[in-house]
Give the backbone structure.
Amino acid sequence: MNSVNMNPIAEEDYSLDELKKEARMGAFGEETFEREVRVIDLSDFEQRKYQIADELWNAATDIGFFQVSHHGIPLDQIHDAFAMTEQFFKLPDQVKAQYPLNRNAGWESKAQIRPSTHTPDQKESYQITRPRMMGLYPSEQELPNFKQTMLEFEHACWEVGMKILSCFAYKLGFADDFFSHAHNPEQETYQSTLRMLHYYAVDPVLKDQLGLWRAGAHTDFDCLTLLFQRNGQGGLQVCPGKDMQQQWTSIQPRDDVITCNIGDMLMRWSDDQLPSNFHRVKNPEAHEYQGARYSLAFFCQANEDVLIESPAHKYPAITAREYLKQRISANFEGKY
């Protein structure tokens, strides 16, 4: 399979095993430090592409998570995106409420209820999905330069994501530009998303409640996630393997790398060769930093009309639109 099948198929109900598994992942589990999240150097990418592809494949097939350094996005641009993120979330709620979440675009607060926890994530988010942003950007008076800053950052993320996905395309035997065509930002069907996240500071009254999660256990819906974290603002944990053992490994945040993970779309496209593994953001413990946590996530999500079809037909074919619709509906009631 060396091309993207753009032929529409009839939409129907699918039984997604991903949702059934996620619903069983709400326990606290235990922490283990025996896993390594590898750092892959992307420098001299064109000259080293096939070496990098081997390194990415080995890291991804191991635990589904890895970090990339020398990725090409200047640190100043990342810092500017974080600064703009903080400014956005400092706007009054009545201002942010003018831009409500719908179809992966806009603002929400404590609206995401994971199938794993059945309680709201302790966060707010604002999502940018380019074709769906009519009327959803704050005005220049409310937040000067917001749109330009965040769209430039979104495009920089797309470029890094497509580099990494071209390596997986090569390893899977697809054309190198297979995923670039599947995530074409020039089309109205584009649905990759930049998500700005603000995890609330811990309320001292609730600090001992283990049932609260900044983000409950889940797998991502997409092909590939790029996550930007800030030094000192930890909490991200990964649980490699869908064997339900719930042994969690913390991933320490670093400003100079992007933390990446495989999503369910790519797991399907690879017939499970590339695992999409569970992760969560735990509430900090009493001795840990209790303040606000900010992160930026870019989700490489295939365009709506692209058919996700596993080469060995392990999974039924499904359009990316229908796939995301089912996954989002399970997390945000009435938001797709």
